[in-house]
Amino acid sequence: MIYSKTTIKNISESVGIPKLKDGITTAMAQDVEYRLHEIISEAMKFMKHSKRTKLSVGDINSALRVRNVEPIYGFETGRPVKFHKATTGLEDIYYVDDEQIDLDTLLDEPLPSVPLDTVYTAHWLAIEGVQPRIQQNPIPSDEVDGGEAGRRAVKVQRQDGVETIPLVKHVLSKELQLYYECITESLQSADPV
């Protein structure tokens, strides 16, 4: 048995049940051992399905959640729990070494700032083909790449003799430009294909 009769008696006295008979303590110890075995085997299923070799607190909490039992509070899954041994005259006691916190220094520290509420903002990515220079928009690629050399405007000559400067730099591969020209020609032509 994992739990002895004296352990069950000590726990019952701490809860407020003064005297238990030996038969009851034996039955309680066996029941506790059975329940622990159930929870650990359920937690091992979660561990195996997660393809891990170490049982974590998250696995135990998942097993408890399956059994509709409140999870264990105060333990994290990120750090391993280290038990220290204290030897008394009768038996060995294992305990978790907790960090001692000085309440005076904790109370003297300023309170953390209150988190802001979730806020949604909208902005224009481009207005009439021109991307405004605001913090939310990305930096134009010609400024990042070439500095002054990248800022040279490309002049486009139209059929009517007017030189225009495109407002937005278009980056299309030659294959996409050829595809676009073929599609527009086929749509504008009167010949059925």
Uncertain residue segments:
none
Number of continuous helical runs:
6
Question: Mean pLDDT, rounded to whole units?
Answer: 79
Distance between the termini: 87 Å
Structural class: mainly alpha
Let me know the largest β-sheet: 2 strands, antiparallel
Query: How many extended strands?
Result: 4
Q: What strand line-up does the widest sheet have?
A: 1-2
Order of helices and strands: HHHEEHHEEH
Roughly how much helix do the residues carry, as a percent range?
Answer: 25-40%
Strand content: 5-15%
Using the CA coordinates, give the radius of gyration. Answer: 36 Å
Principal-axis shape: elongated
Summarize the structure.
With 193 residues, the protein is mostly helical.
List the helices and strands and how they pair.
Elements: H1 5-15, H2 22-49, H3 57-66, E1 83-87, E2 92-96, H4 103-108, H5 141-146, E3 156-157, E4 163-164, H6 174-188
Antiparallel strand pairs: 1-2, 3-4
Description:
The structure is a single chain. This protein is mainly alpha-helical and 193 residues long. Helices cover 39% and strands 7% of the residues. The chain is built from 6 helices and 4 strands, in the order H-H-H-E-E-H-H-E-E-H. The chain has helices spanning 5-15, 22-49, 57-66, 103-108, 141-146, 174-188; strands spanning 83-87, 92-96, 156-157, 163-164. The strands form 2 sheets. A two-stranded antiparallel ribbon has the order 1-2. A hairpin with a 4-residue loop joins strand 1 and strand 2 (92-96).
